[in-house]
Amino acid sequence: MIQASVIGATGYVGQELVRLLHKHPQAELCGVTSRSQAGQPLADLYGSLRGQVDLVLEEQDIPAMADRSDIMFFALPHGLASGLITEPVLKSTKVIDLGADFRIQDPAVYHQWYHNEHQSPQLLAQSIYGLPELQRTAIPQYRLVANPGCYTTCSILSLAPLMQHPQVQLDTIVIDAKSGLTGAGRGLALGTHFTEANESMKAYKVAAHRHTPEIEEQLGQQAGKPIQLVFTPHLAPMNRGILATCYIKFSGCLDSQTIWQLYKDFYRTSPFVRILEWGVFPETSWVKGSNFCDIGLALEERTQTLVVIGAIDNLVKGAAGQAVQNMNLLFGLPETTGLGDVAAFPI
User: Fold this and answer.
1) How high is the mean pLDDT in each 10-residue block of the chain (347 residues)?
2) CATH number of this structure's domain 152-314
3) pLDDT tens figures, 125-147
4) Which CATH number fits domain 2-148+317-330: 3.40.50.720, 3.40.50.300, 3.90.1150.150, 1.20.1560.10?
5) Is residue 188 exposed (0-12), middle (13-18) or buried (19+ Cβ within 10 Å)?
6) Which residues pair with 234 in a beta bridge?
7) Residues 207-222, buried b or exposed e (16+ Cβ, 10 A)?
8) So what's the pLDDT on residue 187?
9) How far apart are CA 256 and CA 252, in angstroms?
10) Residues with a known catalytic role
11) What whole-number distance in Å separates Cα of residue 137 and Cα of residue 140?
12) Structural contact between residues 253 and 303, judged by C-beta atoms closer than 8 angstroms
């Protein structure tokens, strides 16, 4: 059994990791930590775990936890993991960081968008961006995996098949994305109070969202050259889910069957990406609680603009589920192990 620990288990992503690891047939939770609630049973904070998970939250002793873990999941706010993940830790255990610290390879770009100095820039070259659909064969060669963000996962998967198509105009990409409230974390904030967020939609961090360089870097790698795009996030009055509507123009004419087949071929070995029939579009309710990414396609023929719509659960495929998918690859397991849940509906 893989001995797994969760560093920062009291946030939404942390508890989702605990839920998925608890039911994983080849993994066993050996420890959970909290910076502020050590000594409390985790089930006291999340009643859904009562009678299922009896772990008590521990102090955040990273070296000690590394010694007894085969893998550690860091579910911490941005800026913390890079100071806790060290060479000795990586010699003791494998690490999946669910924050942003190792997602961007250039520490100057990281500083520009996150306003933090990277505390372990020497480890960036030892990390890999853990989007399994694009890095499936490379991930097992690493001990440090940067788990992608939720907006980023949905956006990249929605657009990656197009990046090397000769008729795609890479300077026309626009991503309009919506997220459920859990994407903002469990901490208290005025904008996520029920009376502030319910029955309302709003854009936020317009032209300044931190996932922008992450999306650009990964799509640029697929394209083989740097790209820039417009990304606008919105807060939607739902608990879970990401819906990304992406626009990209073509030069010349393409028919719908060619585009659809391009996507089918690109993801033919990706069990969690579902390319819907042409003209069928995803909904967040059909992926809630699952590790699937649903993608729908439409062509606006008047302007030769392709509309690509992707949907994921931000806590599963956008965070904890993808982390478990990466763990499976690191340990040579089928990537679907422990992740076969059908979406819960209605919920």
Assistant:
1) 97 96 97 92 93 94 96 95 96 97 95 92 97 98 97 98 95 97 81 85 93 97 97 95 97 88 98 97 97 97 94 98 98 97 83
2) 3.30.360.10
3) 999 999 999 999 999 999 999 99
4) 3.40.50.720
5) exposed
6) 178, 203
7) eebbbbbbbbbbbbbb
8) 76
9) 13
10) 150
11) 7
12) no
Where along the chain do its domains lie?
Answer: 2-148+317-330, 152-314
What does the block give as tokens for 37? 């609630």
Nearest to 27 by CA among 50, 5, 54: 5
Task: Extract the tokens encoding 290.
Answer: 């699952």
DSSP β-ladder status, 273-275 and 242-250: unpaired
Written as one string, the DSSP assignment of 222-264 is: HHTS----EEEEEE-SSSS-EEEEEEEEESS---HHHHHHHHH
